[in-house]
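JOB MANIFEST
job_type = single_chain_structure
chain_count = 1
residues = 392
[input]
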Amino acid sequence: MTRLWPDLMPSNSNAFFAAAPPEAPGILAIDLDQLAANWQALRDYVAPAQCAAVVKADAYGLGADRVIPALAAAGCRVFFVATLAEARQARTLAPQGNILVLDGITPGASEAYTQINAWPVLSSLAEIKEWGQEGVQRGSPAPCALHIDTGLNRLGMSEPEIRALAGDTHLLGRLDIRLVMSHLACADEPDHPKNAKQHDVMRQLRPLLPNAATSLAASDGIMLGPNFHFDLVRPGYALYGGQASKGRPAPVKPVVQSFARVLQVRDLAPGATVGYSASYSAEQPRRIAVIAAGYADGFFRHLSAAAGETGGFVAFSGKRAPVVGRVSMDLITTDVTAFNDPSVVRGDWAEILGPTITLEEMGAAAGTIGYETLTRLGRRFHRVYLERDGDI
């Protein structure tokens, strides 16, 4: 197996790059071994709590068809998705796993969950009543999870709804509640007072509901400490190597690297402009590399840089080259004037994400977060999945 970290040299002689089809504009490499190692590190970190995996949005854009089996092989048994369609896919990929659907049930969809043995995460009394009726029709209480709103004010039952449910023993008798969960609003800010407040609300409301596993922490919540782990944690972004917390880093390493081809290198005379709207003008002679990546590939348009501005960047052999001009759908232009030994030439590979540029850095430069960076990676790049005893 060819390892990506930390000594990958962007050169056509490297077997990793040689494996890419000649027509590929870029390479997206996903290290499934590191993904599995990340889950196992988080599992060990939160023990004795159980560690699930959030694989919604096509496993954060990395390919659920490869990610879910890798996590199942590593020992994961609980998977969270967002939609029923994602649950159907997850069921085929993890036949023995517990599949929980965060969006709950839409009207009339209850039977479909029963057919694939997926547990809806119920967030309202209306959903609970419909799911309870499904239990009546199947002749036994149907497994599910309940979502308490502790202060995020998105999905979740309010305190009055929880108290109403707690007083309705007839309705509760129709449910097989396996998990009671909530979600933190400010977990990436360890000192934010809302974390403690939501934790306290969970502690106050939890005794009103039937005995079941409890879950509060996702990726960043895990790093708030054992008091937030309860019985089960739900990492998503951290599994894929993300480090969003402003406090203690998660015990994970990057999973993704992305590189794009240099299509052309050109010299600019003073006064020459680059790209749409002529937003960048060279004040002195510059050398520009035109690279086969754009916003269709997840390289945000907000990474553009007009004259005098700082935008995004790529890297060659660990040295950064700034974006100049507008990011377009298929192309970016970067200043490689400083690359003289060796110089950047047509056919070289520019690092988009990897040892030099993290998900968080790219997201921050674009005015967003690493989560969006990860999920926006396009499908045009040649995808390489690396795993034990496998080939690139």
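[summary]
The longest helix spans residues 32-46.
The chain has a mean pLDDT of 91.
exit_status = 0
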